Amino acid sequence: MSMAAATVRRSRITPAREAELYAAVLDLLREVGYDAVTMDAVAARTRASKATLYRQWGSKPELVVKALRHQKPVSTGEIGTGSLREDFHEMVMRADDCRMEQDTSLMRGLAMAVRENADLLRALRELLFGLETTGLDRMLRRAVERGEIRSDNPTLEYVPHVLVGALVVRGLIDNQPPTQAFLTSYIDAVVLPALGA
Predict the structure, then answer these.
(1) CB of 195 within 8 A of CB of 146?
(2) Nearest to 63 by CA among 31, 118, 26
(3) How far is it, in rounded angstroms, from Cα 122 to Cα 22?
(4) Model confidence over 66-81: pLDDT tens digits?
């Protein structure tokens, strides 16, 4: 059974309570890292029972990834300005600089954790990256249909890698977090020219 199929459960948790649980999970991740986050710790932090957590989310990897997904300000698939450049810029503008810095820090920590945890990697691929890649594919397909980019451009396959790479390596190369200004400039200077847009 796929992770997505396993998560189709009847929810007895209100949206406000769910948001509170997700916020607690992300706080714990920032404080102690993925390996030290346990369902016991989440239960204690949120005054929830472990049974409730397992009934709702099934596993720690699923809970962590759903928490990451919940905090995203927008799904890529929801953006449709009518222009690829404006779609990319809109995507960047919907996350403020502070959020991007926090998200990038979390993702770097999780990138280390997935090397030892196949369940976390599977959850990230199914519940986070797969959805975002699908939304990005739709955005790029619309640009092809509008004639902004060619359908045979080999860069199309690598757009997710190029965008994630910019987020992750900014701190390594420049010792600075990614910002809206940096990503907007990067998109205009690197991504769009590579796509021939």
Answers:
(1) no
(2) 26
(3) 19
(4) 888 887 655 677 788 9
